[in-house]
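Database export, one record per block. Field names are fixed; values are copied verbatim from the stored entry.
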Amino acid sequence: MIAATATIVPAEEGTRIRWADLAPFIALAAIVLFGALVNDNFVSSANLINVVTRSAFVAIIAVGATFVISSGGLDLSVGSMMAFVTGIMIMAMNHLVPSFGDWAIPVGAGVALVVGVMCGLLNGLIVTIGRIEPFIVTLGTMGIFRAFITFLTDGGSLPIDRSLREAYRPVYFGSLFGIPYPVLITFVVVMLGAFLLYKTKYGRRVTSAGSNVEVARFSGVNVSGVRTVAYVIQGVCVAVAAICYVPRLGAATPTTGQLWELQVITAVVIGGTLLRGGRGRIGGTVAGALILEVIANVMVLSDMVSEYLVAAVQGTIIIIAMLAHRFTANR
């Protein structure tokens, strides 16, 4: 998957390759090498497959976040939205299983996609029609979505119906030719996202809206429409991640997706997408998601730093990435 996404990065600017575009992949290779030196178990096939599979959820959501951030927006609600979509999906499947049996799973997945679209549309419309800063809007919906899932679970856990667990289990734990299904789904999402961002008029309008709003409007770009669609894409990506995530734990809780917004934004930023908008890097975003998961895995396998400091390390990474962006922008 890493090699496949690496070829996508420079597509936006033609065949010219810049060192800045390769930086996330070089950093990923360096961290992987460091992990191999720290602990021999790191390079075992089982551990590497586990790392890539666990990174799939953040990578899928981060693809959507690349569109939002490239268009000049921001979404802090993705972790809470993930929990809310997961809860609604499980409730739908549990309600439908007496009548539909195992078919409740694809129907529940459809419900998740609809809810994801509606959540993304809600964020997008409030930002564009309400003309409120994306930070404020998504900070508010972050609290709303988290409160809803806490209410639906009564502060506890909302498990999937026992009769569905075995049928749904392969979506996370199954594989095709040794490649886990979440990784394959991530690859499909990445390819679709790259095509949409780099090869379509909409993709060019996304970066145009994020680069300079007034120029984009003068050029005939419907900035509000472009940004609203970006938030809808974000909602769809959250729903896809939820569909892959449910069989992993088999339940939704008030802590599902907690702090994922930090991981998603960090993955996007260290992948080369400008936080101020105007430039998106789908391949770099996936590399960023892998970097975060590899770092967390190395911390668990080694005794150098406590695994409880993973969030602190991720926070430090995003600050360093922002300083790097500011430094390169001022050169």
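Remark 1: The chain has a mean pLDDT of 87.
Remark 2: The chain is about 75% helix and 0% strand.
End of record.
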